[in-house]
Amino acid sequence: MSASMHLPTGLVTFLFTDIEGSTRLARMLGAQYRAMLSEHREVLGRAFAAAGGVRMSVEGDSLFYAFGDAAAALAGCVRAQRDLAARSWPGGQAPRVRMGLHTGPAEPYHGEYATPVVHRASRIASAAHGGQILCSSTTANAALDGVRSPTVTFADLGLHRLRGFDDRERLFQVVAPGLEVDFPRPRGVAAVAHNLPVPVTDFIGRGAEQRDLRALLERQRLVVVVGPGGAGKTRLAVELAAGLVANYADGVWFADFATAADADLVEVCLSDALGLRPEPGRPVIDTLVDHVAGRRLLLVLDTCDAFPAAVGALIARLLAGSPGVTVLATSREPLGLLGELIWRIPPLGLQEAGWKRPGDAVTLLIRRAEAARGGRPVASAELADLARVAAAMDGLPLALELAAARLRVFSAAQLAARVHDVLAVTDAGVSAASVPARHRTMDATVDWSYRTLPASVARLLRWLSVFVGPVDLAAVEMVHGADPVCAVTTLVDKSLLQADGASSPPSATNQRLQFRMLDPIRSYARRRLAEAGEERTARNRHLAWCRLAARQAYVDPDGQPVTLSLRSLDPIADELRAALRWTASEGSARAGLSIAGALDQWWRERGLAREGRRWLRLLYARVDAAGESVPDGELAAAYHVHSVLAGVDGEYAEELEYSRLAEEAAYRADDPALLVRVLSGRGAPLLDVGRVDDAERVCRDAIAWATREGVAGDALFAVYTLAELLWLRGDLDEAADLLASARPLEAGRPVERGRRTVDMILGLVALKRGDLVAAHEHLVVALRSRVVNGFLSRAGETLGAMAVRCALGGEPLLAARLFGAAQAARARLKTSGGVLSVYWVEHEAAVRAVLGDAVFDSAYAAGSALSVEKAAAVALAVEHPDLAADSARFTRA
């Protein structure tokens, strides 16, 4: 039995070691160096072998081992360091060995491992000093339960960026009796002191506010900056925190809870910001509390009002768990926590009489006005009018932003005159020097505009608040129920809506305009909507618009099917989510299931399969709670979507379970086409789990049944799976024949043809045949269609195939770059290589062998930095094989 048969599999711990200063040591020892090197290998080999390590390679003073047990690997390292220290060495010069470990999923292939986990372990070893044992957080966590000696502990060295990796790795030093403790900071890596966002606009004013907050943070552990939406809370907090990085030994970390999809993900949001990885079987909050314990750091927590109860509970646990944690939070409302210091943000400074240069409020208005005008400077003659506007806006940043946006339509004088007229209607006679407090919040500012609206326009504002993003005139008209041009013009004039891209007021002839409501205004309008008792009507109209908008991705204006482009769903995805939220809580779950069906492929191709499954579960619960009747055919379609999404997530048991439910419902519905689609999806999970014979039988049965029932096109998924299976085992002729017969079926199904799966698999067949011309042509067709139509996950798959085509075509550097792009796409979109994984690994290894590690890694990293679209442009620019100088096409007969 070969040694490769005994290599660890599953969760593997990799160890790299080398001698620090080996070149210097060799010069000092001269002829004795060889004996020292041999003895060093013997000492390490005994310790690692006793710990169950498998030696992978020896090169000079470097060793590479693999362990199936992280705790055993650590024990072996500790023993090795002790044994090295206890020996007498030639010339009295003991070798100082540095060691680095990392743990991750790995499977051996032909007696070796091809995985980034190995490279990460190597980089960790490179970061260590002689006599030091470094490991990743993954290794430390994996070893915690299995450490055989209670005296072995870990010293957290913080987050570091390893050479060749874009993410941050938390490094731990192994501490045990007999080992050195004090070392310099890790070598060749840079500690990340903060993750504060970098603003794209300049920060104006707030000097006194920063001084006040800085003083408060020195004596208060929880300071909450409170104010209305648009008051500049986030910008002030980030600017202040940037100046405090040096004051916190363990860094300043920013988390925006607006990015959390729901309250359950608040802890995950902060965990991601701190660079922590989830620990299997352990609550995220426990990981967070353990992480901050004993550290001195500043947490800048933004948009806490998104989920105030969940955020408040999180902050309370963190503050109780570590006295070194300080929290600077921003919120529209106090969190109600013990020890909370509420600091309300004031407006920007206004002008005083006799001013000679603009104050903060006017300066902000000037800067934003210039941006709104495409960079054209504000004339000095406009400053007085702008000062009037700033005073009317009460110095609130968002109000100034709204006013500046209006300057795309009005001159400064016109805007100032209009603002004065409105104020005269609501608070006549109030001077800028004594603005009432009610004008110093955005709610009051919005209410000031709202009370001047005609009833029909006010109702439109309330009803538009159910949208979550920009809307066009057609959407407004559907909600409004009448010609919306006059009403929309009024809302744009009052800056309650932003006319994106407009250089003039909206008109009936300019249907490309989109109208955007800022969040503070939307929040105000939604409260008004609920107070008016109109929410159900407005949301059901929004739901109807969403269903129509989703349908338009599948059909043309005449109702005829069109090639599905997922890019048409991208702009309305958030609207569809809002509709799903409504249907899963108070609306029609049946309508929600239809929207989920429209989003099926979008979820898959955007790496959001888990989100889709979550929505479907909520909709099932809503069906049961409301007792809503859903036809079996629609229920079967939803179960089938759920099954496919589960498969994308690698949840094969769940995939097969929902496939069974879909089959039962399809039988009840007596829908042969739907039933065939359900059964056609059975082969892929069987193939993924290695049940090749069962997968082939299921696919062939589904294809045969579909042919008998006259619904052959609905069995395309079975055709694709069977073709991949045939390709895997080398039955290339049968695979090609099968795909050729499927081409017209794919072309006749608009929902499928944009993916060009037939061309993709034919390209793979051609690659195995060594026919680069055919492979290039098929893969280019597949890649171009997938990118154009927004099938990003599938496009990433095709990039891998194009990498193989380049490798076989004598372009290894380009191949390495495309391999990197393909892997990055898989990582971003949360997909795996599936049945192609081994194929990619084989060809990556071959390209690496041609280029060498350094060149390959450099090209691979360059490709990893590319988006799918940019990588596709690179791949599509690859020269056709027939254009090569030695092509047979140009050879004389």
Q: Tell me, what is the CATH class of the largest domain?
A: Alpha Beta
Number of domains: 5
Give me the number of helical elements: 39
Q: What characterizes the major β-sheet?
A: 8 strands, mixed
Strand order of the largest sheet: 2-3-1-4-5-7-6-8
Question: Mind telling me the C-alpha Rg?
Answer: 32 Å
Task: Give a count of the beta strands, DSSP E runs of length 2 or more.
Answer: 16
What is the CATH-assigned architecture of the largest domain?
2-Layer Sandwich
CATH superfamily of the largest domain: Nucleotide cyclase, GGDEF domain
InterPro entries: A/G_cyclase (IPR001054), HTH_77 (IPR058852), Nucleotide_cyclase (IPR029787), P-loop_NTPase (IPR027417), TPR-like_helical_dom_sf (IPR011990)
GO molecular function: adenylate cyclase activity
GO biological process, one term: intracellular signal transduction
Pfam family, one: HTH_77
Sum up the structure in keywords.
893 residues; alpha/beta; Alpha-Beta Plaits; Rossmann fold; 5 domains; eight-stranded mixed beta sheet; five-stranded parallel beta sheet; 39 helices; 54% helix; globular; disordered C terminus
Describe what is shown at a glance.
Helices cover 54% and strands 10% of the residues.
Describe the structure.
- This protein is an alpha/beta fold.
- Helices cover 54% and strands 10% of the residues.
- The model is unreliable at 420-442, 502-511 and 887-893 (pLDDT under 50).
- The strands form 3 sheets. The chain has an 8-stranded mixed sheet. Strands 10-11-12-9-13 form a 5-stranded parallel sheet, with helices on both faces. It has a 3-stranded antiparallel sheet with strand order 14-16-15.
- It is built from 39 helices and 16 strands.
- It has 5 domains: 3-190, 2-Layer Sandwich (Alpha-Beta Plaits); 207-344, 3-Layer(aba) Sandwich (Rossmann fold); 360-450, no CATH class; 455-533, Winged helix-like DNA-binding domain superfamily/Winged helix DNA-binding domain (Arc Repressor Mutant, subunit A); 754-893, Serine Threonine Protein Phosphatase 5, Tetratricopeptide repeat (Alpha Horseshoe).
- One of its GO terms (biological process) is intracellular signal transduction.
- This is Guanylate cyclase domain-containing protein.
- GO terms for molecular function: adenylate cyclase activity.
- Residues 13-125 form the Guanylate cyclase domain.
- InterPro entries: A/G_cyclase (IPR001054), HTH_77 (IPR058852), Nucleotide_cyclase (IPR029787), P-loop_NTPase (IPR027417), TPR-like_helical_dom_sf (IPR011990).
